[in-house]
Amino acid sequence: MQQEITDYIVQAQKHGLSDFEIKQNLLNAGWEAGPVEEGFSFAKTAENRPPQNYRTEIPSALSPLQNPHSAQKPPGIQSANPGIAISEEHFALSAKPARSWGKAIALTAAIAILACAGGAYAYYVKVYNTPNRVWNKALLTQEQSVFKSAYSLTYSFKPQGSASSTPVSFGVSGAGYFDRQDLKNPKLSGNIVLSAKADPMNINFNLGYLILNKILYVDVSTIPQLKDFLGKQDVSWIKIDPDAIQKYASQNTPTSTYQNPFGPGGELTQETFAKWAKLVKPGTFLAKEELDGIKVYHLKNEIDSQAFASELVTSINQGLAKSGGRQKEMTAEQKSALTAIINKIQIREFDTWVGQSDYLVYKVHIAANAPSTEDLSGSSDLAFAPQTKNRDAQRLADIMHFRSALELYYKDNGSYPKGKDGAALAVPPAYLASWPAAPQPPDGTCTGYYNTYWYEPAQNGKDYKLTFCLGSDTGGYKAGIGALSKTGITANIKCPSSEPANCAASPVAPEAANIPAKIGKLKFNAAINLDIFYSDFGKTENLPAPVNPADLLELIKAAAGKTAKP
Predict the structure, then answer these.
(1) Helices (H), 438-531
(2) What angle, 0 to 180 degrees and rounded to 10, lies between the N-to-C axes of helices 101-123 and 19-28?
(3) pLDDT in tens, 182-231
């Protein structure tokens, strides 16, 4: 490869071409600048060596196989100018005698200028503005804090066995203005349109909204049913103050887990946007187009499904941890189901349009498959529930119920009930309506032997022992065999030496093993299409608050029979 460059330089110099003209010929043919410079060094060295038998013919073309770009091209860049030939025509400047030195000089200068301009343009388009560089610059652009958007999301499918050729579709569309200069206090306005189409049904539902100073205003003027429900015909806007509702809920419902959606940690940060955006990768396509009069680059994007699933699990776990609910993180079955669903979804089209001058994203288009009505109707076969955490929670609840019933029995009778075959005998329904069975199947390392609730009286009715097993840490108790007595629960007890075969099994999660296979059999023949358009970057607007909105909190108080404050 390097020898071919050197041979060309030597022969071109013999024909009288300048070094500048030789470099432009090689660069325009697609050779890298580095090997070209090295070729001049090798050619100069060759002048000081004894004569060698250089090839007398000039290479007729630099084919793609000879073109160094074929092996060294950056990702996503096609071989530069693979069809440009370097032949005797390239030497016409010196091979033919010029009739006029002035004309020759002028012609040479013109060609040199055109060559420089063409080379610079080719470098800018083919090397500088690669798909990766365009996408990375779009992610780093900070001017998207103020903009407008319009979007359309549709979910459509054709019911199996339907005689109609018209598919059923559900859609969400709308437009909005976003001012995220203060990420902790964003300003938003817009409308949402919900639609449903199924021949001959066609339903549309329009809802306006406005967010100012962390207060949400909802326009109900286009929803007569809601206005009738409120009983105030003159109401056009409803005011929803999350802080006030949170304070009211905490004062009147001590166990309330309501949280302000605009509270700490709830705001959309630039880091959050960047984290998700980095999962999107540009493909190999880069075209120059116009979109509503704006010159843009058209990119074919790709997404890393595994990284997306991992990031989604992390985000869900963070949400569960902050929710204040009983579940703090996803179970193994839930993770397995989520990953299987993401792997089943095929993103058929993922295109973005980025401005050529400002590197702002002006349009996003995504088309993918989705679960169909057949899948949804057959979802009960996936055996998602009961799940491990739910079963363990039920086991622990049963044990606590046993404890209350046995203590009441002891208080009234002076001893704990007798037992037979692992069950308490002659316990009236007033204490225990029935002896519950442990949830199936066993979880974690629990065996069927210890998964069963087994009751035995002790110390002539003055104490008792009730064994059970937890598949995972639950309610502050460690996983493993547990025992309940009058002193409470002892968790993760040692296995009796006489029963090693009954104590621990290999960890199993039947649902986790079956879910991916079952999801893989689903049809997923519905379609999802998403289009988002962005415009008016950096153009701020004044958003006035609605006049005399109805306060949702006052409506709640009135519904609860409390006097609203003036």
Answers:
(1) 448-451, 500-503, 510-520
(2) 40
(3) 878 889 999 999 998 877 778 888 889 999 988 999 988 877 666 666 66
For residue 330, is it within any domain? no
Q: Is 13 exposed, middle or buried (0-12, 13-18, 19+ CB in 10 A)?
A: middle
443 in any annotated domain: yes
Six-digit token pair at 119?
A: 């080379």
For β-strands 361-370 and 347-355, DSSP reports them as antiparallel
Same domain assignment for residues 200 and 240? yes
Instruction: Give start and end residues of each alpha helix (H) in 88-230.
Output: 92-95, 101-123, 131-140, 224-230
- Residue keyed to tokens 């997923």: 524
Determine, yes or no, domain membership for 275. Answer: no
* 105 or 285, higher pLDDT: 285
Same domain, 159 and 257: yes
Number of domains in the chain: 3
Round to whole Å and give the CA distance between 352 and 363.
6
pLDDT of residue 553: 85
Mean pLDDT computed over every residue of the chain: 75
- Using DSSP bridges, classify how beta strands 550-551 and 237-240 pair: parallel, antiparallel or unpaired: parallel
Task: Give residue 274's pLDDT band: very low, low, confident or very high (50, 70, 90).
Answer: low
Chain-centre distance of CA 555, in angstroms? Answer: 38
The mean-pLDDT minimum among 58-62, 97-101, 178-182 falls in 58-62
Whether the CB-CB separation of 484 and 491 falls below 8 Å is answered with: no
For residue 368, tell me if it sits in a domain. no
DSSP-assigned letter for residue 89: G
The span from the CA of 78 to the CA of 91, in Å, is 28
The predicted structure's pLDDT at residue 362: 92
> What range does the domain containing 21 cover?
2-128
